[in-house]
Amino acid sequence: MTYNAILLERDGHVAAIRLNRPEKHNAINAEMSAELIECLDALEADDDVRVIVLTGAGEKAFCAGADMAEAVGTAGDSRRDAAARAAIRLLRVRKPTIAAVNGYAYGGGAVFAIHCDIRICSEAAKFRFVGATYGLVVGASQLPRIVGQAIAKELLFTARVVDADGALRIGLANRVVPEAELASVVGEMASAIAQNSPSAVIASKEVVDLATIIAEAGKREMEHNLALRQGEDHRERFRAAAERVIGGQSGS
Questions:
Q1: Domain holding 142: CATH number?
Q2: What is the pLDDT of residue 74?
Q3: pTM for this model (two decimals)
């Protein structure tokens, strides 16, 4: 399989997907979304793959969220939300997933991280759930089961940045390691998982998810966003944010 916006690497029973738009801080566009979905479909169908790792290319970002330059033209149209489509597919992966968070994970990037089963972070990792600043609900259906209700509300309501140490403290990160050790630590954990019974690991994941994921919450998040995207509040906030991001990029 050949991709442009992602890279796929295989090491035994472990497959690593690298979001590969470093010049855009690995922002999610339609091409990346389609390739990620196609890749996950293929890896799920491959019995030789037992663990899937997701990480970002470059030194700064795991994933900056939606590509604002592309997304500004689709504000109000949830059917064209590339980041949301890929995030939903990632959440539905049956095999164990590890996010190797090698830099900042904002917006849709933060959602990618919490849709993985385990998050191993470098010391440079940062999380931000920015939905409320854009007039949307982003991550609210999944974040509470990871960090608890009160902390989830704080992060969603304020959209504040959480650094790696803070993420470890609240349970958002499983482990925080020096940047130079991230790949080896993730590799060791992925190998340890891959050595166990694949069917038992998949069954364990299913049971944990049944115990903690509330399907109605995910459905309600989508319904809210369908309505919010039609409002002028979202359109104005999203355009203003896009102008700041695009302007900053053109000035760099």
A1: 3.90.226.10
A2: 55
A3: 0.92
